[in-house]
Amino acid sequence: MLLKFFLMFTLTANAEDIGQFAILGEQAQAPFEGVLFDKTATAVILTDKGTTAGACEIRVQYELNKQDVEFTLERDNWNIRYTALQDEYKLVMEKKDLEIDQLKDSLQKHSPQNKWVWYTAGIASGIAGTVVIANQIK
């Protein structure tokens, strides 16, 4: 296990080249200087690189998918809030428009039917008041 741990960091540090290995018979000399592994250790080293890369790729895809789902959820929540605020705005504006229409109707109902009579009476009383004050001042 310690050997596997050591090799994992060794291979990670030199990711560009895998290095060399030789399959030797008993009592044979190695063609290079280095560490000699048996067939099982060599197989573990070579397969660990592939499985580690695959596991890393799976983890990266998982995290990217998780971020995508979280972003989509957040965006959908903001769209729902935006739609709710738009609907609330429409309701408030409809309520205000209805209130304005009711106030116009109320104002028209309470205004006098004979407006020209009131205008004439106002003008006549203004002229009469001005004449009386002018006579008082002389």
What does this protein structure show overall?
The chain is 78% helix and 0% strand. The chain is an all-alpha fold and 138 residues long. Helix 1 crosses helix 2.
Key terms:
mainly alpha, 0% strand, 138 residues
**What is the mean predicted local confidence, pLDDT?**
82
Proportion of helical residues: over 70%
Instruction: State which percent range the strand residues make up.
Output: under 5%
CA-based shape: rod-shaped
How large, in whole angstroms, is the Cα Rg? 47 Å
SSE string: HHH
Oligomer description: single chain
Biggest pleated-sheet summary? none
Count of helical segments?
A: 3
Low-confidence region ranges: none
What is the total number of structural domains? 1
Whole-Å distance between the termini? 125 Å
Can I get a quick summary?
By secondary structure, this protein is mainly α. Helix content is 78%, strand content 0%. α1 (2-13) crosses α2 (39-110).
Sequence-ordered SSE layout with sheet pairings:
Elements: H1 2-13, H2 39-110, H3 115-137
Helix pairs in contact: 1-2
